[in-house]
């Protein structure tokens, strides 16, 4: 997940008095065991997640960690507008190779690149639907080995994918006719583009040159994917309607899930 240098405290409180604490310790051990072993996760009739063994569900995380301290913001940057450094409906972001913060500035039809402390470095994009232009960009990701950008916007259809150099110069377009609406975009440690289609929940893995390498249907364990993050070839799929994050291998094998509607209501991205 991206680090904005926003200071967040995620310390969690526990009630250590009486038998309830012993029960929480037992639940915590069950959770840790579940996280260490792959589990088959599906959707139940209520569109919630279910595991084969209800006694070792990762959902017990919400019972153990039921109270969190409020988030503390260290600083922020950006304000509403169309001027340099201003933003209008930012819809996605990622980190660049120098810890730059890359923002898809949707209603300004551009990509803004900020230093990690929030100073604007440069921005690129002209409003339009022709190749090299941007039309409501939604998602952006960076190739870590060369700093090039991959951007998904609306283009002439519902989704378009374009590659720009690390300086923001248009390079080429990647055909994604097999996708409807791209709601998640990332670059894996292998240098592959990973894009998520929310209409028919599917994850597509594409080479840097634009070749479709493989794909998998994630509708079995995700109701409506709203974003994706990748760490060490493990995929973290944000699931808005199921109020959590589904964690899978890059092959599509589900590992476990995080959260529920009590602790992560309608998550929309990373």
β-sheet strand percentage = 25-35%
CATH domain class of the domain at 79-258: Mainly Beta
> At the fourth CATH level, what is the homologous superfamily of the domain at 79-258?
TolB, C-terminal domain
The chain-level structural class is mainly beta
Number of helices: 2
Radius of gyration: 20 Å
Choose one word for the global shape: globular
Give the neighbour order of strands across the main sheet.
3-4-5-6
Instruction: Output the helix-strand order.
Output: HEEHEEEEEEEEEEEEEEEE
**What can be said about the biggest beta sheet?**
4 strands, antiparallel
User: What is the CA–CA distance across the termini?
Assistant: 6 Å
Q: What are the segments in which pLDDT stays under 50 over at least 5 consecutive residues?
A: 1-21, 34-42, 44-65
CATH topology-level fold name of the domain at 79-258: Neuraminidase
Number of strands: 18
Mean pLDDT: 81
InterPro entries: 6-blade_b-propeller_TolB-like, NHL_repeat, TRIM-NHL_E3_ligases
Protein name: GL20002
Keywords: Repeat
Pfam family, one: NHL
């Amino acid at each position: 997940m991206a680090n904005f240098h926003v200071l967040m405290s995620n310390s969690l409180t526990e009630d250590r008095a009486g038998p309830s604490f012993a029960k929480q310790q037992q639940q915590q051990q069950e959770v840790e065991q579940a996280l260490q072993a792959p589990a088959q996760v599906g959707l139940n009739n209520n569109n919630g997640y279910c595991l084969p063994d209800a006694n070792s569900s990762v959902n017990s995380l919400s019972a153990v960690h039921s109270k969190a301290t409020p988030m503390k913001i260290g600083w922020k940057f950006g304000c509403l507008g169309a001027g340099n450094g201003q933003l209008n409906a930012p819809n996605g972001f990622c980190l660049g190779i120098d810890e730059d913060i890359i923002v898809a500035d949707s209603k300004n039809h551009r990509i803004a690149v900020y230093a990690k402390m929030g100073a604007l470095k440069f921005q690129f994009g002209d409003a339009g639907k022709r190749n090299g232009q941007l039309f409501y960009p939604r998602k952006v990701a960076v190739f870590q080995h060369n700093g090039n950008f991959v951007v998904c916007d609306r283009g002439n259809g519902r989704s378009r994918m374009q590659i720009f150099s690390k300086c923001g110069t248009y390079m080429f377009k990647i055909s994604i006719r097999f996708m409807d609406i791209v709601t998640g975009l990332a670059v894996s440690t292998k240098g592959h583009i990973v894009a998520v289609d929310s209409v028919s929940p599917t994850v597509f893995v594409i080479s840097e040159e634009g070749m479709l390498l493989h794909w998998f249907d994630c509708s079995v364990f995700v109701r409506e994917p709203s974003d994706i993050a990748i760490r060490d070839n493990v995929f973290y799929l944000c699931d808005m309607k199921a109020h959590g994050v589904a964690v899978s291998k890059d092959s599509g094998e589900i590992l476990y899930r995080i959260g529920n509607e009590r602790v992560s209501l309608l998550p929309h991205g990373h």
